[in-house]
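Lab notebook, bench 4. The sequencing result for the construct came back, and we need a structural model before the next group meeting so we can plan mutations. Quick request posted to the team channel:

Model the 3D structure of this chain.
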Amino acid sequence: MAEDLNWAVGGEAGDGIDSTGKIFAQALSRAGRHVFTSKDFASRIRGGYTAYKIRTSVEDIQSVVDRLDILVALTQRTIDENLDELHEGSAIIYDGERSWEAEIPDEMTAVDVPLKTLAEEAGGAIMRNIVALGAACEITGFDVAYLDEALEKRFGGKGSKIVENNKAAARAGQEYVQENYDLDHLGYNIDTTDNDYVLLNGNEAIGMGAIAAGCRFYAGYPITPATSIMEYLTERIEDYGGHVVQAEDELSAINMSLGAARAGARSMTATSGAGIDLMTETFGLVATSETPLVIADVQRSGPSTGMPTKQEQGDLDMALYAGHGEVPRFVVAPTSITECFWKTVEAFNLAEKYQTPVFLVSDLAMSVTEQTFPPEAFDMDDVEIDRGKLVDEDEVDEWLDAQGRFRAHAVTEDGVSPRAIPGTTDAAHMSTGLEHDELGRRTEEEDERVHQVDKRYRKVETARNEEEWDYREFGNPDADNLVISWGSNEGALIEALDYLEADGIDVRVISVPYIFPRPDLTEEIEAADETIVVECNATGQFADVIEHDVLTRVKRINKYTGVRFKADELADDITDKLTEEVPAQ
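Done. Here's the predicted structure in C-alpha cell form:
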C-alpha cells in the first residue's frame, strides 16, 4: 500500500511535461488524495531539462522529499538527474523504441512501453505522455477513471473526439503494462478517499485573493514567474467588472496601476525582481502621493536576469528599502498557498486603510507549486473589506480649509488623511510627487516638510499599534531550539519536525508573514538556547533584520542553489547547525 507516493515526468522543454503533470495532479486530487507538486524547468521554449514532480498521500503533505517511486523518463538526462532520489523499489517508464538507449540501474524496475506507437494507434503521437500516465496508473493500482475525469476537464473544450482519443491513449498504456509486466512485487496501490479538494498554486491563490478583495484593475508585463497572476486575472476579472492591461514594460504597468488607484479602484501590479528594479522609480510617487497600491513581487534567482526559472528569496532588502529618500511601506510575505489568498486580501485592506503601498512578496517555489486544500480554506464569507478613510459628500465639510479647499494630505493624529474619490462633490484636490502641503500644493517650507514626513511615518506607527503583526507557530512551543523562517519555507519546516522528532530533537518553529512592520521576537529568541534562521538566499537577509531587532547573533541556514528546501534535507541541515558555534558578536 502506497499512502505516500512520489511520481515524476521529465524530458525537454516542449515535450508537454507541465501539462502531463497537471493532468495527473488533477486526477489524484479528484480521487480525494492530497497533492504537492514541484517543477524544474529551463528558461527556454524548447530544449533543456524540465520535470514535474508530484508527491501524493492520503495524509496532509507540505513539502517535497528526496525520494522518487515512479519516474516517466522521456530522455536519458531525466534518469541521470534523478538517480539520487530513485531507490530499489522505483519503476522507470520509458520508450525503448526511441533512438536513445535507456541506461537504467539494475536495482530499478525498467518498464519499457512503446509510448509513441501506442499514442499513434490511439489517434496521434502527441498523446504519448497520456499513454505514460495510463502505464503509471497500472503500476500504482490507481483507478484510471479518475484520469478520465482530469482529461475531460483538460480537453473538454476541444471536442469529444479529442477527449475520447486521450482516454484511449491512457487505456492503451494501462493495458500494455497489464499484459506485459507483473509488477505486484513493487507493492504500489494508491488508495482513494471521498474527500473533496481544491488544487491550485500560489499565483492562482494571489489572483483569487485579489478578486475576492475587490481588485478591479491590474496592469503588468509578462515576466517569469509572476505572469500567471495576470493570466489568472485575465480569464476572470471581467466577470466582476474589472480589467487587465498588458503594458509595454514594468514602468508603464506600475504607472497605469497608480492611475487606476488614484481614480478609486482597488489596483495592483505584479512582477519579479528585475521588474521591481524598474518600478522603483514610481514607487516613491506612490508613497508620497499616499496612493493605496499592491505590488506583488514573485521572487526568482538574481541579480540582473539571474536564473528566471529558479527559486530564491533574494529581494527582501529591496522590498524593505527600495526607493530613494525615505519611503514608508508595508511588506507582507505569505508563508503558504492559502496565505497567498488571505494575505493578498489583507494587503489591499492595509493599502487603503493607511494609504500606503504594500509589497506582497512571494517566490517562485510557491508560485508554481500546486497543492490540494479543502474548499473551506478559501471561505469567501470570511473576506472582509476595509477601504479606510474614504469620505463622501456628507463628510467633506470637516476636511475643508477656511477657503473651502479639500485637504487631501491633512495632518492628522494617526497620520492617515481623508481620501476622496475623484468626482466627490467639493473634494477636488491635487497630489504631486514633489513635497506638498495639506492641499497637495508644492512646497519647500521647512515646517510643511517636517509635518508631511512625520505624518506619513506616523501612519506606519498607527498600523503597528492597531494591526496584528503576529507569526505562525509549529512544533513544541517550550522547546529550547528555535527555528525562524519566512515565505515558502514553512511547509518544509513543518514536515522536517517529524524527522527531527524521530531523532529526539525538539524544535519550536516560528514562521513570519509580516516583514514590515514585523513581530518583535526578542522574548522568543532570548528564551531559546539556539536560534536558527532559514531562508533561500546567500547572505541571510531576514537573519540580518532579526539580528538588528534583537541585538543577538543567530545561526543561519541559507540555500541559494535555485532549488527549494526539502523536508528531509532541511531536518539534516538543522541537526548539523545545532552543533555549530554561534558567530561572535
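The two ends are 52 Å apart (CA to CA).
Will bring this to the meeting.
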